[in-house]
Amino acid sequence: MTGRRTVRNRDWSVLRYLAGGCGDVCAYAGAIYPIAAVLCVMIVLYAAPSALAAQSGQASSDPFAGAFQSDPDAQMLLEADQLVYDFDNNIVEAIGQVEIYYIDYVVTAERVTYFQISRRLVASGNVRILEPAGNIITASEIDLTDNFRDGFVRSINVLTTERARFAAESAERRDGEITVFKQGVYTACEQCKDHPERPPFWQIKAATIIHDNRTQTVSYENASLEFFGIPIAYLPYFFHADPRIKRKSGLLVPGVSARESLGVGVSVPMFFNLAPNYDITFTPTVYSRQGLHGDVEWRHRLMDGSYRIRATGIFQTDKEVFVNNIGRKLSGYRTARGSIGSEGQFAINSNWIWGWDVFASSDRAYGRDYSITGDNAKDIESSIYLTGMTEQNHFDMRTLFYRVQRENTVEIDIVSKTVIVHDDQKEQAVVLPVADHNYVVDQPVFGGQVTVDSNLTALTRENSDVRVAPETDYYAGVAGSSARLSSNVAWKRTLVAPGGHVFTPFAYMDVALNWGSFDDMTAGLNSGSATGRAMPAVGLEYKWPILIASEYATQTISPVVQIIARPNERQVGKLPNDDSQGLVFDTTNLFSWNKFTGYDRQEGGTRANVGLTYQARFMNGFSLDAVVGQSFQVAGINSYALADPALSGIQSGLDTQASDIVGRLTVDTGSGMAVTARGRLSDDDLTVNRAELVATAVRGRSNAKVGYAFLRARPAVGIITDREEFSSEATLALGENWSISGATVFDIRKTELVSHGIGIAYDNECFALSIDYSQTRDRYTDQVDDKTLFVRVNLRTIGENGVRRHFKE
Fold this sequence. Notes:
By secondary structure, this protein is mainly beta. It is built from 4 helices and 49 strands.
């Protein structure tokens, strides 16, 4: 058959012919460049004549017939205004609004031409390819040759699924794996919709951009980094990972830091993606004053969990800088310094997990001196744990060790005028172990709910933690070993009587068995023997919510009365108190059955807690929420007036027959502004013993918070002067992208700043810049004034870099 044949029909059926080799050709589905999709175009053009013949039931006389093996599973659809077959020249053309659908590829163009003799395919006229991964490629013309592995593209633009963009005057495909852009541009910024001719916020412009699919990198030759079309940095060679790649071996973004004791540091992180489930990150840092610092982290994910191990270290070349201004050698005064840490978590089954989080370092200040991320807190907790959970049960058991990351605490005894230095590490308790079990009985008992809470704690401490106080010294911890097994069985039921009266009867039994062997006998504790305790209790809580509804607001007023009858607490002062020291009396624990925070103390005696709650919700969104109340020791001995080794209840506001009055008021405008005030007032003269005021405001991207706190002196526990503090923090949005922020903490009594900071930031869809300055006083006992300047720059898809500068007076 000779001559030309033209078909005009846009309603073709789905083609079911697949050219030989299409499986190999179209396998490159992850590329961001047009080779794979265009090869599928070629296959459709090869298959089209045979498909038409097959559909008509006639033998094909087309020269392409039989050139490829058919595959009945492949489905293709080609639509065009015209399909022209030039049998004399072996050319096939699809003309006018060409649309080709193959698997998940969509190709559109004004014209697609296949030359059989030269084995060249040309697509031209607004070529657009949508790849299965979502990338969009546009070009003016695509020309593929050499068995369709190599090709040439004019005026190419690529939009990836990560919203990154490549553009070039031309692009060349080599070996099916490498694409070379000539006079190319790369950016992760959106085009200006109103003025698309304007350059993007930033872009990398290069004479040559090479995308290598084998190494999954994008490299640039003779490149420049431009902002708003203005070059600010010239780079003869530069590369980064393919934007599609989430994990790839190679160099990460370098970092720069500066600190007086270390000098200028330059970090060059290296990431090794050894397998899909494990990798290594090595970060060497060269400090101009201290030498080479190493940081290695291994991560490994398994079928039932994951773990990581991190080790850091340095041989310091100038340890003399770690001597303070009075000649005292600090923790950093040593040649070899380092740390090792590991954490992991694994599932035993659907209900149980176990894991660990452990850390060790050469000295106390290493983590913060070298800004080891995650290891620069004042104290670091190490633990090994086992946790189980079902609908009615929760179990958690763990060992705990606290690594002190600060210099020893120094106290001055104002009576003897002597200096007391605490070895904080030896005063820390090692917990071996602490176990908690919480169980909720799934069936009602006498119509109420029964819960069982149990705890086992065993700990040891090398030195006593004795704190100096004007009235009497007290023990935050006692040297020696101790163990306690406690269990609390509680029952309660809620009954609603006619008229909306709510009665909640309850009862509980709190039992404990203590054992201890203490080295410091001055604490007066029972040592070398077991001591049992029991605290039975019955109680009743009454509420009467009164609802007041109108067209403007809904208000609820409810008096609350609670009475608990118990015997007196026993063995107070004879047993250690490690977990019940953090007693703060306020509205959150006004109606708690036991206001002590842990298991070491059991509230005793008959006590009545009374209060009044009020809520109002207005139609315009405005709301009020308030509570006020007081606690009374009705009979028996007041537990909070009994002195344990830690003096936890003394001067707490609960140690008198009539407690301090506590209250809280929250006002919310419903439009982003809210104020909360809390206070504790003396019962006899309404003297303010504790006060807190917090005001917040949020409007769009701007927000502010102002706080005030007051705490009256508690000489019994070493707080010999009143404490008063003002704090504030705010972020103010300036336009769509800019913002400024600031924060401050001011000690009103000492009339000095505790800390303050200020920052400015710019952030858009492809670029972020922030500059922050902060200063903190008395952050650590060996560090009077810590100043930090941090500059961070982030180019989306390229990486983030920061420069940190520490100043120290």
